[in-house]
Amino acid sequence: MTDVRFPQLSAEQPDAEGVLATWFVGDGDQVASGQLLGEVMVEKVSGEVLAPATGRVRLLVAEDRTARQGEVIARVE
Amino acid sequence: MSVTESATAPAEPAVRRLTTARAMVEGIAQEMERDAGIVVLGEDVAKYGGIFGSTAGLLDKFGPRRVIDTPISETAFIGLGIGAAVEGMRPIVELMFVDFFGVCMDQIYNHMAKIHFESGGNVRVPMVLMTATGGGYSDAEQHSQCLWGTFAHLPGMKVVVPSNPADAKGLMISAIRDDNPVVYMFHKGIMGLPWMAKNARSVAPVPEEPYETPIGKASVAREGRDATVVTVSLSVHHALDVADQMSAEHGVELEVIDLRSLVPLDREAVLTSVAKTGRLLVVDEDYRSFGLSGEIAATVAETDPGMLRVPVRRVAVPDVPIPYAHSLESAVLPTRERITAAARELVGA
Fold first, then answer.
1. Which of B22, B53, B194 sits opposite A19 (nearest CB)?
2. pLDDT tens readout for residues B298-333
3. Which CATH number fits domain A2-76: 2.40.50.100, 3.40.190.170, 3.40.50.300, 3.40.190.10?
4. DSSP string, A31-68
5. Model pTM?
6. B237 an active-site residue?
7. Portion 172-211 of B in contact with A at CB < 8 A
8. Is the ipTM of this complex over 0.90?
9. Contacts of B193 in chain A (CB under 8 A)
């Protein structure tokens, strides 16, 4: 099982909150390592969430919800 | 100009979803891998990736010789693109906001659009001019216009206006492969950008392989028997929302035609639908007078006005600049409320 964390987009504020903008995959989908899973945003800067491993993805944060940078937002089982 | 059509989008939708912005980028990247003569240039297209994400990641993939940030001089870099196209390259040039056309229109309509004709058909200008359009986010009168009617009015350019991720990729690939200048107009509201108003249909399945969406062919976004709504770009989404609501509340079935291209215009798709429904509503986020909505109405009137059971209705921007204040802006845009009111009048619901 591998954690997927909210990427660090703001170096000045390491614990800044952002928004989970879009999931491109559904909960329980099979994903490949390196695949684009989602898009997040801190202020108006957006960043990509890539799959760290191959497996079945579990989404832990819903679209449009806030999350802290570094927080676990999904798992690949 | 010739209308070239080849392979169309595969019928089977892929599971993989993309935003419209990412679908455009994927189309550009796949073509750049195939053809070394394709270059991308414009303001903030390289390092920043396009302010609306239309070129994100291309610099990393293809390097600064093929993805080029230009100075703020639209006349210079659009002219550069035209010269490169005439010499056999296939440049994609981004005009950041279509509203900026005023400073570079001589290059666009006197050169890009006319060289093929001036040369007696001997010189081709295979370039894509892509540009962001549309309002709805309080960016005021110089950053919110659609203006596709202006470009479609001037001969010599194809004009495509996608409304969803799959068409955005397919039309981009078609535009790049086309030997004519193609103006590719993307509405900021359909791009699926995290910082714009969320639009459910701006993230959708997109086939992974390269494919062409034919230029000059409309699509029936929703079938219906009671009235035809002809529209384009973001307004397709509003029209579909209204159609679903009217079906649920009044049992009225609207047919929604997504034009996808303005030049060439798929008049046949409009006529086929209106012949079936007898009622026509045109929804256009561009200015009302002398534009797309009048052209669609004229198409029906010139062919057979007898197919209309009631007069044509139009929902468009009244002939005023787009206001900054959100309340005033939503009063002039073709919102769901305005579309609903017009559609109900049309069908007497």
1. B194
2. 999 999 999 999 999 999 999 999 999 999 999 999
3. 2.40.50.100
4. E-TT-EEEEEEETTEEEEEE-SSSEEEEE-S-TT-EEE
5. 0.91
6. no
7. 192-195, 198, 203
8. no
9. 46
